[in-house]
Fold each of these.
Amino acid sequence: MKTKSNNWKVNLYNKKHAFVYQFGEELIELLDPKPDELILDLGCGSGQLTNEISKNGAHVVGIDSSKEMISDAKSNYPELDFQVKDASHFHFNKPFDAIFSNAVLHWVLDAENAILNMNKNLRSEGRLVLEFGGKGNVATIVNSLRKSLEKRGYLKNAKLKNWYFPSISEYTFLLEKNGFEVEYAHLYDRPTKLADNENGIKDWIEMFGSLFFVNVSEQSKIDILEEVQNNVKSSCFNDGKWVADYRRIRILAKKIA
Ligand code: BEZ
């Protein structure tokens, strides 16, 4: 799922960034979907986890703001319900028993509005099962990228606020303020191997950080990608593989109001 441009490279995503949904399977255990429950998969991407959630009889609706992702999801799983909708503005007539979201909410900068909207679309005592980038997520890569942009005079790009990576206290405060009781919250390092052994960091930045390069010349972009990959090599290259310094925040909360 993404929020700012509709330029998802669906094939590249599925081929090289499949870890986005592969890691989500553990989160489904926390969700513990029951037969006949109505569950929303918020930011379903190409639908792999939506399909997993539906396997023991839950009715699942997958939403994503990317038309391309939804069309891929529909062709992968034609029997499931997928719809193009935005994470902070969706509305359904029937409230859900649970809302599940993996690797999406860091794209939603207005976190409080997203929480309010999830609350409105959940039944009383309905559960929220979320995982996304937490405080310090991909800091090695992104700090290095900001430095390389700044060094070349791209000061506005270097300051871009592209993602929301909260601490536990920040996010649980917002949940409690907006009608949820938090049952579980965990912030943890999840170093993530990237698929391409040669251009791992460069590919990652191109795939997820393209907004950093708005109005940056093509040559500067090539130089910056090269420089960042070299600069992070001592921390992000292990045993012949590129590894991104992911940190996740994982939440289980219940609607109380
Ligand atoms: C993440 O899954 O943590 C993530 C993905 C893309 C950009 C930033 C963070």
Note: The pocket of benzoic acid is lined by residues 103, 106, 133, 137-138, 163, 208, 246 (CB under 6 Å).
Amino acid sequence: MRIDILTVVPELLGDPLNYSIIKRAKDKGLVEIYIHDIREYGKGNYRQVDDYSYGGDAGMVLTIEPIHKLMDELKAQREYDEIIYMSPDGQLLDQPLANHLSCKTNIMILCGHYKGIDHRIREHLITREISIGNYVLSGGELAAAIVCDSIIRLIPGALSDETSALSDCFQDNLLSPPVYTRPAEYNGWKVPEVLLSGNPKLISRWQEEQAWERTRLLRPELIEGMEGEDK
Ligand code: ADE
């Protein structure tokens, strides 16, 4: 998989995408991530990439041309399955959407900044808009890093134990059961007896019960929304 991220603040994206599972996936050749500075395509000596908005609303807006030029250059080299714009008014990121994106070959992600981007970019150049939650960030960069993390870990081979992504929270729309490690008792706080029983059947039954119980208790809407998931 190849991911191209377009931003006016590339510094925000280097570090979050250089550690842990993402780093390992890169090292294994499972994913390539390229961060492009829109400013390099900006106008004039000052590399201007923004301008005042029509209508006089306060705040600067990213202009079309630098983004269009950069996108065209990338699109001339390969075909993109998705050209995503990170925006609080986009489709909410969830596990089915992460699964869907993890199967793609080439993805482009555009990060907005300032007041936003010229709406014509969204109308003509974008195939999907994604939000990571109902709150407003200063830009799309951190949201893009979250999208990248959620999809890269799903690429087969990215996790050391391949089955562990399958037993994740949300993978079957249930929260994960609680997990424990040694010692079996700490400060008088005990690990549930069944996990020490060595009986795999009992243990997996307990884990399934816990998953349902926790979901019912903490996130009942996940159970209510179980049918009809299709991205
Ligand atoms: N840009 C600003 N806020 C955002 C959000 N909540 N999700 C995605 N991109 C954003």
Note: The helical segments are 11-14, 20-27, 64-75, 95-102, 119-124, 141-152, 200-218, 220-224.
